[in-house]
Amino acid sequence: MKTNRKFRVAFSADFFGSDGQPRYRDYGRGVLEECAAIEVSHFAEHGPEILPEQIAGLHGVISLTPRVTSATLSKSEDFLCIGRFGVGYDMVDVAACTAANVLLTITRGAVDWSVAEAIVGWMIALSHHVRAKDRLLREGRWHERTSFMGSEVRDRTLGVIGFGGIGRTLVQLLSGLRMKKPLVFDPFLEESAAAAGGARKVELNELMAEADFVSINCPLNEETRDLVGAKQLALMKPTAWLINTARGGIVNEDALYEALRAGRIAGAALDCFDNEPITAPSRFGSLENVLLAPHSIAWTHEIFRDIGAVASGSMIDLARGRRPHGVINPEVFEQPAFQKKWERLKVISE
Prior knowledge:
By secondary structure, the chain is α/β, with parallel strands linked by helices. It is 31% helix and 13% strand. Helix 4 crosses helix 6.
């Protein structure tokens, strides 16, 4: 049964350009607009943090990059959910959400294929010296090509730090390339689960010492900040590469820069950094053994479509009184104040 009330959802302003037009071909808005009970809008202005007045009158927000703090939620009497457009949520104060009776959702599963595919691409680009060989031809240095012999991924070892959806998909994608059994470091993973995913669980130091490719795929939190520092980098083979598509801060940037500058490891591919956005040339750009991207190496039309569909689906679930996908703070469901608010705001009963 439908009511005349609307469930109001807004997208953060960074989905749109300065001309007010969408920056992305498909970011899930159409999924919401197909539901008559949902009223869709977007913020008029973008800032580093969502302001309390921006969520006034809304029931949910789908957010791309701005921070969410306790101040954001200081007037959240009618607000139910922050929907992160992606799987990282280090920019959201989870405790503040829980205290304000607000759910935090992520789009678990929607990013796995695209990020894993990007990592595979970077593995091959690094080991085959794609950047250097491209430059040789552009600069007419054909006869220097013998100085850049590549290495195949065949018979090499992948080390995955964090064996969630992305890590598991990465292992699956590489299964046909005749690599050795992957190594996984994940303190929350059972050995049997690693084996079922086609990998072997090891401690971090063993992974760093044995892997030819180290892929960072864990979230950033207090336990993982500076997880890979000078000590761990010193364990890596001089022929090994490090790839970070997760979050800056997991790998100590100073230690990594020194290891790369000194040639103690073969190279790195970096999609994320301690302080983003980076609007001046990065020091890593001065290094020849590094590939860089502005936290977008996995951005494709397909990933935005999939993320948008999942994020929008979670908002529709809330409007229907259903538990949404990818809730980070499920304890909120046990809070009477949230249940009372949710019952009052849901607009579709079935």
